[in-house]
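Incident log, support desk, overnight shift.

02:14 A customer reports that sequence design results differ from what the structure should imply. Their input is reproduced verbatim below. On-call engineer (initials T.W.) acknowledged and began investigating.
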């Protein structure tokens, strides 16, 4: 039986997307029926890296199913000041984990910390794991097995300088995994970062949107699902489905409604003003397969060099792109002397650090200058949003940004540059503003 008590939830998200996530959660809350006049969802504080909210199971399940920006939805179990690993063990050992899962479920524990005085987070993780296992052995005689790859249940501990908070994960796989991505392509954007950027860009269904370096199609798949009312989580399962108690009948109603909406979207002869192109035919094939699995009818997708693009329709709209950068994936196409350029792919060991240090070479600069010219000359009246780790990009494009918003693509610090395009030049502005999303 589901507990009638409201719960405290925390939805982590990529840093920089806290405000868009709070706005999205407020919209999700409006869909929930309120029980006897009491709000079924109460918005909580935005903190760096996520948003708190309070509500019943329906709120937690709806956030899992409908949030495009959250990385997970965590259910708060307990919070208390701590000084040592022993304090953390004691807090975890007191909790009634047996209410939520049994020793038959496999377990994974993760600990994250900001300014924790503890010397080893690994040791803290072991202590939480021991406490949960000891607790279950005490009540049932059996310990759960640990499975770090595909656990049934995940417990998170979050440590600040003074407090330890324990959470039970209700999502399972992170929420950016929608279940529609067949092939990752070379450097796909995480779906929740793409969705957050659409919101930061102020895009709404009906406004034309064009990604001229669409790769595997993340921006356009997210936009099309939003336009068609397809829930991001309709094709996947969630961690709460493995817990002993959640509101099964409300979940079934929610899931059936989401599946119906997806079926209706697939049957629509939608003529969405959502456009994608890429220089790579292989990437476009991946994008097509991803869109089909995301329940989106076929969109305008063309194989084009971004330097040669023209507006796909007369009405101005939004250009959105995360161009290739650094060593991870290089600009392709013909160089200034007509030579064909092949992408340089990073070795598997190269991480975000490697490409954040990479300097643009002369041919990259030529590409971005020509791309900037294409925007200035042919996209008057459009707004362009470009996500990159390369802060020199506006200079290379010879465009002045009107805002730049700090965002994190995993560990990589990026900027979302906004350019307001007018014929032949850019709107003259006193200077760029650093905006907080
Ligand atoms: C960082 S990836 C974009 C990833 C995409 N947002 C996704 O989620 O899959 C950059 C893309 O730019 C494309 N590209 C490289 N050079 C190009 C050019 N000259 N014109 C158009 N696209 C180009 C690559 O094929 C690649 O798909």
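02:41 Re-run completed on a clean worker. Output:
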């Amino acid at each position: 039986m589901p507990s009638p008590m409201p719960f405290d939830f925390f939805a982590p998200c990529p840093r920089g997307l806290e405000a868009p996530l709070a706005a999205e959660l407020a919209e999700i809350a409006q869909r929930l029926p309120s029980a006897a006049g009491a709000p079924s969802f109460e918005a909580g504080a935005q903190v760096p890296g996520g948003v708190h909210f309070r509500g019943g199971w329906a709120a937690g399940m709806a956030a899992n199913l409908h949030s495009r920006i959250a990385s997970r939805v965590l259910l708060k179990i307990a919070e208390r000041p701590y000084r040592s690993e022993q304090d953390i063990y004691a807090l975890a050992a007191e909790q009634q984990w047996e209410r939520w899962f049994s020793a038959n479920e496999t377990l994974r524990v993760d600990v994250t910390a900001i300014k924790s005085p503890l010397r080893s987070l690994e040791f803290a993780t072991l202590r939480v794991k021991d406490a949960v296992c000891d607790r279950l052995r005490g009540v049932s005689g059996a310990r759960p097995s640990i499975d770090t790859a595909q656990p049934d249940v995940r417990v998170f501990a979050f440590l600040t300088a003074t407090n330890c908070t324990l959470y039970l994960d209700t999502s399972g796989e992170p929420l950016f995994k929608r279940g529609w991505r067949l092939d990752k392509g070379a450097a796909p954007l995480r779906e929740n970062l793409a969705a957050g950027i659409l919101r930061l860009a102020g895009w709404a269904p009906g406004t034309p949107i064009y990604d001229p370096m669409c790769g595997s199609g993340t921006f356009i798949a997210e936009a099309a699902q939003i336009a068609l009312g397809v829930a991001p989580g309709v094709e996947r399962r969630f961690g709460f489905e493995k817990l002993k108690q959640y509101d099964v009948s409300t979940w079934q109603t929610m899931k059936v409604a989401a599946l119906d909406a997806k079926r209706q979207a697939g049957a629509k002869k939608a003529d969405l003003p959502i456009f994608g192109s890429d220089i790579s035919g292989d990437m476009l094939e991946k994008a097509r397969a991803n869109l089909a699995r995301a329940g989106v009818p076929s969109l305008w997708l063309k194989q084009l060099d971004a330097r040669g693009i023209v507006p796909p329709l007369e009405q101005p709209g939004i250009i959105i792109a995360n161009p290739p950068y650094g060593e991870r994936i290089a600009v392709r196409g013909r160089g200034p002397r007509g030579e064909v350029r092949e992408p340089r792919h990073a070795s598997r060991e190269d991480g975000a650090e490697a490409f954040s240090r990479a300097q643009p070479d002369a041919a990259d600069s030529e590409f971005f200058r020509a791309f900037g010219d294409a925007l200035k000359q042919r996209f008057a009246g459009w707004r362009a949003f470009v996500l990159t780790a390369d802060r020199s990009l506006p200079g290379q494009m010879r465009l002045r940004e009107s805002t730049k918003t700090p965002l994190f693509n995993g560990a990589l610090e990026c900027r979302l540059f906004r350019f307001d395009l007018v014929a032949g030049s850019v709107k003259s502005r006193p200077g760029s503003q650093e905006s907080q999303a």
